[in-house]
Design a protein that fits this description.
Radius of gyration: 38 Å
Strand order of the largest sheet: 7-8-4-3-9-10-12-11
Number of strands: 26
Number of helices: 5
Largest sheet: 8 strands, antiparallel
Structural class: mainly beta
Length: 482
Amino acid sequence: MSVTQLQLRGVARFSFGVITHRIKSYRCAVSLDRTGVGHDVFRKFTYTIETELEGSDLADLKTQLDTAKASLVTSGSDFKIYRAGTIVHQHDAADCHFGPVATITANGTEQAGSRESITLTVECLVPVSAAGGLIDETYEESTIVDDEGDVTSTVRTGKVITTSATSAKGYIEANVPAQPAGYDRTLDIRTDDTDSSATYTLTDAKTDRRNYDANVRDHKYTRTRNWQGSVLESITYSGSVRMVEGQSAGAFIEANLPAATSGFGRSYSITNSDDDRDGSYTVTDTKASWAGLPGIDEAQLEESESEDANGRRIIGRSGFFVGSDAVAQVEAIRVALAVLGVIVSREVRIDIYGDGKITFRFTALGTTDGSGITAWTEAVRKSGGGRQRRVLLYPDRNPFIFNGESQPDVIEVAGRAVSITGAYVAPPAAPSGLEDYQSGQTDYATSRLSDKEFETAWRMIFICPPGTSVPKPRSKVVAFLP
């Protein structure tokens, strides 16, 4: 008598909340992710579990599927994987960012009787700290399960990068999972000269391994990610599949390609043997030049910003859009730039007879302090003071030179300011200590330099007692004429 699904659950199984199902095979991938507003660091565990549901008839199978979909997609439930009654992976909801999250895919493949294969993907984001010497850790884990659901071998391959003060080899030895009872273990570690980077292969295998009677005899793949700085540019999957006789490797590969990555374009190739029992594939996901915007087929956006000594910001946005929503997206760029500063230059070109590409370039002026004053200068000039030398001239003797009356100090303060706020800058008040010595009122003039720039120039004269302290030119004073 063959074993039942319920009996198989006691051999290799997983639990998600109160739900428990058997495991035919599973894969685990781990990577460091930065996400959220504060770019928090999480260790991302991704489990891909192959299992199946069993019903008493087709109607009951549908009920089982509906129950699984409703139960397994609820985030925030504790997640565990058991092997021969021992927990080998565990993620509690309280330890994860928003709790473990599961997605379920019914493969549409009916097995013996009223059974259907399903694929469950569980993602767990566990907060981590770069402290402790660990910079990065990645690994992949694959398992082989026999026809009774017993795990015959588990192979984990990974890489660890640590700080110079932490041994990568020691970190691996201290952090590999505990060896399950009844399994033989081999651990191969290879380090670089500094022992701060190491790769390893961990194998747990039963000595009485047997082939298993399932459609997939073997499925192996590797994933390579290409980073440019901190930007993920491409992901490449390379794999091979061997099926039981009479089963199509090509069909299995087509139905089980890795999940697509949002914002990436995909290309792939599949090669089959003559009998279609063996197949290999290569999948490449390449970061799209622009993705995620409805109605946009292609786009490019460049941003630039510079500052000068007066605190003036020159902000630029340029690029192009192609697609039915291109006009709206260009306008959205302009509106967003107008929040950062006053737009002083606008150039838009439309390819009417080609693909409708809209090329744009916007330039805006702003200020680092938010005052809206893009230029400010002030100069102080002192003249007069002391006694003026006088001369009396005679035709028959030498000139008579003598000191005349004491002269006052004359202090002149002049300046200029340019505003992009739509208002003219108000001339500043007299410098502190000179208010009582000002000769007349402050002279000032306003000029409209452009549609966006408003200039104010001022001049003050002060007649002061000899020895009056001369003020220094002042920094920006933010005030505007009514």
